[in-house]
């Protein structure tokens, strides 16, 4: 499946604030703390590619005046969410950001249950097996296992990719309630119209595939050299929907292997994990 007309964006790329929220949506919402949202948006400016940013760069990315940025960065440094690189006086994310995520990971005992299953399958397919959940218009990795086979851009905990561009994201859409799916698709149309234009057909196809056979496929939609398959879990007790995926370097795959072998194996793995957790 050709993808040459589709930008190959990953989580190392910065996205404008509109990808996270639209200020006008909350203009009349007295409960929405816009100042807090703007402060948090500064933290979203940092990526795996852009790990160090100055006030001027943060101002350009957020659209906020430099004076406002300076107050925010000063506060975030004092609270440990940013730190100053003394070599160039630019800001980097601080350790407090990492500590925020640990309680979430610790609360998901599925990571420990799934780990041996994931490693076994990753070794068998000579690729990676990851677990993720939705974060607004993205999916974020919570756990990942990979084989010793070479793989460009290996997955890792915390990586985040667009829902529309990934098998994992589209599997989530298929498993979501009709109301949640409709709302999320509307957000994709409004906030990331380029993704909607490029991937609308594949989203619809993926939803049909999950309902028909339990998994959906991606032939290089995110990265040309990586093909993927994803399977959503049944909802957890709290209603959260988690998704597993397999990623394999395209040159390692035989024709039809993703659909006829890896997809069914991933479905079987997910059903086994659900059984161990009492999810039926």
Automatic annotation (TrEMBL):
<keyword id="KW-0238">DNA-binding</keyword>
<feature type="domain" description="IclR-ED">
    <location>
        <begin position="96"/>
        <end position="279"/>
    </location>
</feature>
<protein>
    <submittedName>
        <fullName>IclR family transcriptional regulator</fullName>
    </submittedName>
</protein>
<dbReference type="InterPro" id="IPR036388">
    <property type="entry name" value="WH-like_DNA-bd_sf"/>
</dbReference>
<dbReference type="Pfam" id="PF09339">
    <property type="entry name" value="HTH_IclR"/>
</dbReference>
<dbReference type="InterPro" id="IPR029016">
    <property type="entry name" value="GAF-like_dom_sf"/>
</dbReference>
<dbReference type="InterPro" id="IPR014757">
    <property type="entry name" value="Tscrpt_reg_IclR_C"/>
</dbReference>
<dbReference type="Pfam" id="PF01614">
    <property type="entry name" value="IclR_C"/>
</dbReference>
<dbReference type="GO" id="GO:0003677">
    <property type="term" value="F:DNA binding"/>
</dbReference>
<feature type="domain" description="HTH iclR-type">
    <location>
        <begin position="33"/>
        <end position="95"/>
    </location>
</feature>
<dbReference type="InterPro" id="IPR050707">
    <property type="entry name" value="HTH_MetabolicPath_Reg"/>
</dbReference>
<dbReference type="InterPro" id="IPR036390">
    <property type="entry name" value="WH_DNA-bd_sf"/>
</dbReference>
<dbReference type="InterPro" id="IPR005471">
    <property type="entry name" value="Tscrpt_reg_IclR_N"/>
</dbReference>
<dbReference type="GO" id="GO:0045892">
    <property type="term" value="P:negative regulation of DNA-templated transcription"/>
</dbReference>
<keyword id="KW-0805">Transcription regulation</keyword>
<dbReference type="GO" id="GO:0003700">
    <property type="term" value="F:DNA-binding transcription factor activity"/>
</dbReference>
<keyword id="KW-0804">Transcription</keyword>
